[in-house]
């Protein structure tokens, strides 16, 4: 594992692969219900697809740049790509072993038999043939290519294909239909449930050629393509239209990974590489089946409980008791913690604002909108009702561009002022500002969150949101919106942190403050909870703090380029990663401040992009009750003994050693939130 790091930092992409390995560990963890383990296989697969479409393609593009500039972006890209391939090959093998040696037998114990075409009974063969004739055959478009001719086949991005080689060197390429379910269920037999991939229905039926012809062996393949849109000039013309017009290019981008069935004969692999115009560097041996993300839709045909018990979102202790959300915020700042709290108060806030005659102005940033959304419907209604509504939509939110454009058009059609992406910078902040005017008195209500305005992800991601009518905070949030509508260039703020203007500077001051306390013999402590930690300057600063004696605890869910536990550099730094049923997404920053904690929440990870190249907002928490709540919740996570892994020097992903008591922090958090409903 020594190639993964030097004494200063881990490579970000190799560290990310270690994160995805933690996801794979959950698939193997027998403490998880069976269908949760299957879900983690789907998550692992989906994560890896995006990694190749985004990160690997980036590295390949960097490889083409002139060496002096290239060295500033990434050192030795070819070496990194080789190491990525080694790690992915290893993980794919582990993935296959988990699926075949653990998941399939475990399903069988539950009388769920996931069978392949060679295991079809005589009756099942007839059923499969009828399904093929009735539902699949007319959807197929079989392409044929001569193996020894200089011709090239195009394979769609992320689509599934079956390929076969005939005796006379004709390559057949068959796309598995995208509009049919991935799994086919046979009739139950004596309490046993039989399910197969649609791939196997096709393999069996396509082999049933007319008498006298050969029977072909089909193998599965899938290609991931570069997801970058490559807008040549973001500074001239209409950026929104350029993005919209570029989306189709994503489907034809350069191949970044070719997944093949490992059973494919070597001579066929060589022929296929030539027809697909790829090299062995692009090829990764997966399993017999690809697109395991389809297992998100793998139904449980039994009456047994094979998934986690549901944890329904809980009503907020104060917001649920007020008829008006505005009155609740006037009474006290309100802290929400999803998905333990319901997202309903945020929706109610917007719905109330849309109808309240005293609301005159609404401003909101949207990074990833839900496809169907009551919250977005309320924004539309507010505009239709004549409110002054300004919506900043980040169209460059990767893979959500089309949906964000759809909602932007809806808002515009209803009278909202919609501002789209800025050139060369993303707006990643999650902020809302509502202005009410009652008898000449103006009150602003601000909402600052760590997660998106998205009802669906609010049930899956752990995030914090703060509702406040604090005049100084709200006034500074207004300044951020003035930057977004280009009224001002720089927001002068003293309380909230705004990237790329003040976030890095202010966090640096806070860390240096802890170093000063440590140098004075007063200790010093820092606790940070983030998705990712990659920025070199902030990592160096944390090393300095560690050397000075500051005790640093990090909760990092994903990539972590910081190397803990190095004597004389980071021996005072502990790093833990938690992977569990919910995606840890919230960002919390706690600085000891000599016993008077300074606590912040916001949208910014400590990555260079979040500090320098995105508009992010981080807010201080002033309410002492909320500060205690955040400290308590972070402490629960730091004491996790079930789902926490130690990020050590070699990034081996070892679980935290077992203690006398088992603390699964997400379950413990749910109980904490439930207890504090009164």
From TrEMBL:
Broad enzyme group: transferase
Pfam families in UniProt: PP_kinase, PP_kinase_C, PP_kinase_C_1, PP_kinase_N
Residues given in the record as Mg(2+) binding sites: 368, 398
GO biological process terms on file: polyphosphate biosynthetic process
Polyphosphate kinase middle domain span: 124-298
Gene Ontology cellular-component terms listed: polyphosphate kinase complex
Function (record text): Catalyzes the reversible transfer of the terminal phosphate of ATP to form a long-chain polyphosphate (polyP).
Name of the featured protein: Polyphosphate kinase
Species this chain originates from: Patiriisocius marinistellae
């Amino acid at each position: 594992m020594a190639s993964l790091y030097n004494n200063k930092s881990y490579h970000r992409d190799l560290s990310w692969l270690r994160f995805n390995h933690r996801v794979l560990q959950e698939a193997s963890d027998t403490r998880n219900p069976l269908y949760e383990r299957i879900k983690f296989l789907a998550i692992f697969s989906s994560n890896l697809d995006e990694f190749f479409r985004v990160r690997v393609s980036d590295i390949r593009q960097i490889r083409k740049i002139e060496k002096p500039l290239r060295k500033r972006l990434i050192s030795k890209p070819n070496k990194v790509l080789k190491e990525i391939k080694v790690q992915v090959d290893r993980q794919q093998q582990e993935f296959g072993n988990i699926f075949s040696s653990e998941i399939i037998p475990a399903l069988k114990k539950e009388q769920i038999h996931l069978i392949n075409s060679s295991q079809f009974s005589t009756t099942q063969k007839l059923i499969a043939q009828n399904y093929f004739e009735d539902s699949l055959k007319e959807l197929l478009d079989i392409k044929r290519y001569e193996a020894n001719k200089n011709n090239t086949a195009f394979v769609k991005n992320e689509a599934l294909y079956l390929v076969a080689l005939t005796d006379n060197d004709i390559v057949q390429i068959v796309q598995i239909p995208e509009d049919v379910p991935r799994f086919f269920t046979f009739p139950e037999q004596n309490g046993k449930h039989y399910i197969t991939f649609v791939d196997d229905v096709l393999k069996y039926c396509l082999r049933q050629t007319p008498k006298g012809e050969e029977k072909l062996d089909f193998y599965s393949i899938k290609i991931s393509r570069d997801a970058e849109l490559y807008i040549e000039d973001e500074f001239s013309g209409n950026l929104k239209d350029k993005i919209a017009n570029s989306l189709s290019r994503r489907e034809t981008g350069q191949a970044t990974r070719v997944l093949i069935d490992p059973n494919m004969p070597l001579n066929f692999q060589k022929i296929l590489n030539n027809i697909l115009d790829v090299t062995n560097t692009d090829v990764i041996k997966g399993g017999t089946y690809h697109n395991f993300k389809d297992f998100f839709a793998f139904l449980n045909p039994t009456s047994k409980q094979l998934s986690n018990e549901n944890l329904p979102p809980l009503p907020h202790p104060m917001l649920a008791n007020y008829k008006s959300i505005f009155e609740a915020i006037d009474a006290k700042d309100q802290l929400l913690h999803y998905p333990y709290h319901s997202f309903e108060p945020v929706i109610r806030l917007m719905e109330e604002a849309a109808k309240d005659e005293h609301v005159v102005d609404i401003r909101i940033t949207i990074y990833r909108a839900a496809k169907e959304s009551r919250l977005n419907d309320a924004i539309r209604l507010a505009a239709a009702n004549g409110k002054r509504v300004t919506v900043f939509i980040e169209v460059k939110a990767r893979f959500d561009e089309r949906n964000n454009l759809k909602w932007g058009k809806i808002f515009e059609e209803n009278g909202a002022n919609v501002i789209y992406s800025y050139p060369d910078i993303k707006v990643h902040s999650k902020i809302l500002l509502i202005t009410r005017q009652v008898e000449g008195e103006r009150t602003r209500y601000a909402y600052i969150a760590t997660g998106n305005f998205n009802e669906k992800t609010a049930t899956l991601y752990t995030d914090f949101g703060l509702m406040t009518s604090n005049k100084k905070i709200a006034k500074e949030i207004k300044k951020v919106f003035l930057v977004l509508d280009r009224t001002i260039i720089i927001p002068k703020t003293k309380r909230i942190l705004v990237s790329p203007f003040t976030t890095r500077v202010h966090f640096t001051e806070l860390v240096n403050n802890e170093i000063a306390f440590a140098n004075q013999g007063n200790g010093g402590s820092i606790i940070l909870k983030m998705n990712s930690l990659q920025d070199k300057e902030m990592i160096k600063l944390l090393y300095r703090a560690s050397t000075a004696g500051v005790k640093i605890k990090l909760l990092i869910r994903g990539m972590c380029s910081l190397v803990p536990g190095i004597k004389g550099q980071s021996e005072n730094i502990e790093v833990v990663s938690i992977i569990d049923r919910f995606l840890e997404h919230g960002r919390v920053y706690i600085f000891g401040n000599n016993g008077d904690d300074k606590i912040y929440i916001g949208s910014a990870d400590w990555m260079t992009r979040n500090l320098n190249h995105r508009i992010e907002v981080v807010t201080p928490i002033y309410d002492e009750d909320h500060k205690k709540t955040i400290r308590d919740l972070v402490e629960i996570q730091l004491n996790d003994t079930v789902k926490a892994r130690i990020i050590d020097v070699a990034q081996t992903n070892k679980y935290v050693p077992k203690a006398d008591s088992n603390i699964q922090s997400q379950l413990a958090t749910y109980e904490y939130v439930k207890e504090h409903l009164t």
